[in-house]
Amino acid sequence: MSNRWLVVAVGIGLVVAAFTPLPERIAGWISGGSDTVAAQGCSPDAPKANLDFTLKDMNGKDVKLADLKGKVVLLNFWATWCAPCRMEIPWFVELQEKYRDKGFHVVGVSVDDPPEALTPFARQFKINYPLVVGQDREDVQNAFGPIYAVPTTVIIGRGGKVCVKHIGPVTKEQFESEIKALL
Questions:
Q1: Which of 52, 74, 96, 167 has its Cα between 20 and 30 A from that of 141?
Q2: Which of 75, 55, 60, 80 is nearest to 136 (CA)?
């Protein structure tokens, strides 16, 4: 893990712990801090997602986020060393398979791993969605963040709005409920 991420993670953890009462911290960890998107779909005042980025995938091919307009997109900022990220990945594989034909698409943005680390990781976890290199791409991270912790997951609705943002791990059931509400 890079020193930058370690410092940021420790700093955020200390700030959150200092200013958030214990019951709210526990509820946030369990729910992932999401609002009630599952019940209502995307809020009309949700911010517009910036999809005007082209990133390289782990094989060096271009992945244009703009090509995903009109789809429900789960954009997951993660790292290979992140235990909660590793926990969520099999769920994303399953959700990609289950909802792909309904216009759902997962993109994994590796925040600090080089491309050569992603290929064996993708093979090990049987990842069926694009893994793109977000290392040194502060522009992308800032467009959806800034990203201070991993995993951070953004769900973008068909209309191109950021409908959900989770900082930290979330249950598979919550992800699926939010995705289904937007399909």
A1: 96
A2: 55
Cα-only R_g, the chain: 16
Domains of the chain and CATH, by start? 3-182 (3.40.30.10)
The C-alpha atoms of residue 134 and residue 144 are separated, in whole angstroms, by 12
Q: What is the pLDDT of residues 68-127, one digit of tens each?
A: 999 999 999 999 999 999 999 999 999 999 999 999 999 999 998 999 999 999 999 999
Strand partners, 62: 56
Closest CA to 112 of 87, 74, 141, 90: 141
Residue 82 tokens read as 């992140």
Contact 134, 77 (CB under 8 A): yes
Does residue 177 sit in helix, strand or coil?
Answer: helix
What three-state secondary structure class fits 155? strand
Cβ contact 135:115 at 8 Å? no
The pTM score is 0.79
Say whether pLDDT at 171 is over 80.
yes
Report whether 118 contacts 131 (CB < 8 A): yes
